[in-house]
């Protein structure tokens, strides 16, 4: 966990160039807090490790001397301490993730203002764009419930957005647009503006080669997930096998119909999907990996 947070911090530091003085001050303060929290987490982990060592030793004594109730009683106390330590570490990790989110928000806002995001004004090489999209998916926050009673929120994994949800400026969405040939395609786009009077979005195609801006109704927009689902705790928030979905085809910025072959088994794994492809005898491509970020519900029926 600490290594993951350090990696997050390093990635953030590499993107600080071009920030204003006020933005740099905000990030510096948040980074200072982040460092303090990491130190606090290290102290908690040392204390927790010491308790776990005592627990293992007490387990051994309980097995070697089962007639002595003292060790069983001591073991119960050690388990209570371990649970308390785990909750303390969880709270610290959540604080650290909140700081990372705040820092990213400042950087993202700055990038939108300066044209360094996914906007059409930025010249991004195809390889660099694909790498950015992959990183965007890999760093999508993971939903971690605080208790067994926590309900998986909308826009986590396969859970759709609420009917009245409006995507924010800078959010990535799937957009159904009409091409010059008259065909309609689902593309990856960035929200520029939403007009509440007309209920229409203004979006940019993130593909630099297209440089297109579109005005689309809400029914032509599907917001992408804002959090990843953990298969261990939120299996219901993942598309099950054989579900018809729209998935971003690897190394492209377009969504195509696909069938889920295998959902992720861990929080780090991606979906294995079969894209509809008439060039294959069975009508589907070999299995390809697609991150949770770019797999969304397809409301159309499966082709026969």
* Oligomeric state of the chains present here: single chain
Strand residue percentage: 15-25%
Query: What is the helix tally?
Result: 4
Mean pLDDT: 85
Roughly how many Å apart are the termini? Answer: 46 Å
Commentary on this structure:
- Strands 1, 2, 3, 4, 5, 6, 7, 8, 9 and 10 form a ten-stranded antiparallel β-sheet that branches.
- The N terminus is likely disordered.
- The chain has 304 residues and is an alpha+beta fold.
- The protein has four helices and ten strands; from the N terminus they run ααααββββββββββ.
- The chain starts with a helix and ends in a 7-residue tail after the last strand.
Give me a quick take on this structure:
The protein is an alpha+beta fold and 304 residues long.
What topology does this entry show?
Elements: H1 2-13, H2 21-64, H3 69-114, H4 126-138, E1 172-178, E2 184-195, E3 200-205, E4 213-217, E5 221-223, E6 244-248, E7 254-262, E8 271-275, E9 288-290, E10 295-297
Helix pairs in contact: 1-3, 2-3
Tags for this model:
alpha+beta, 19% strand, disordered N terminus, ten-stranded antiparallel beta sheet, 304 residues, SH3 type barrels
